[in-house]
Specification:
Elements (H helix, E strand, L loop, with lengths): L1 H13 L1 H4 L13 H33 L3 H13 L1 H12 L3 H30 L10 H19 L5 H20 L1
Helix pairs in contact: 1-6, 3-4, 4-8, 5-6
């Protein structure tokens, strides 16, 4: 969690120019910092409420379709819960801003891995019925390692094309099918 916070300080404060270079097309912000923070807080509360509704309805739907909790948590919730981020990443990729699209995708994954998951484990001690272990089985570990290797391979060259996108989607489908039958 400290590493994630340090990364935020690095990208938002000390090395802002590396992550947000000034563009000729940049527009001045119409919102004040206060208005932006209030909008983020309201959106965060709304997302929290919608997440509760999603989890409740998805559990029932998953049972009726015969889907495992493992598949629902690893695939369905991940897709539905990040639909807005995925949409924005696709839109900026269509505008040929691949650095931003990749940044959105990798930033989301980093946030979950380095901040959200450890925070949930810590909060499970005082708030949960029992502590939540951060333990992965061999299949989950293999999926994580392959995801890291694939993300590194795709981003290392700094270029992309539509065929790499198709290959990434195919890998996701294979992992989703494996999770469905695991």
């Amino acid at each position: 969690m400290l590493s994630y916070v340090a990364g935020l300080i690095f990208s938002l404060r000390t090395h802002r120019a590396l992550f947000n270079p000034h563009s000729e097309h940049a527009e001045e912000a119409d919102w004040s910092v206060r208005k932006g923070i209030i909008a983020l807080a309201v959106a965060g509360i709304a997302v929290g409420l919608m997440s509760e509704i999603l989890v409740g309805s998805i559990s029932e739907a998953g049972e009726s379709l015969g889907l495992s909790e493992f598949f629902i948590g690893a695939i369905v919730v991940a897709i539905v819960g990040n639909a807005a981020e995925h949409w924005v990443a696709v839109l900026v990729a269509k505008k040929d801003k691949m650095d931003l699209a990749v940044g959105i995708c990798l930033g989301s994954s980093t946030q979950i891995a380095l901040f959200v998951a450890p925070l949930l484990v810590i909060l499970s001690f005082p708030f949960g019925p029992e502590p939540m272990p951060l333990v992965f089985n061999g299949f989950e570990l293999a999926a994580i390692v392959f995801a890291i290797l694939i993300a590194d391979r795709v981003t290392a060259e700094g270029e992309s094309n539509w065929f790499e996108g198709v290959q990434l989607l195919a890998v996701y489908v294979v992992v989703a099918l494996a999770f469905a039958f695991a």
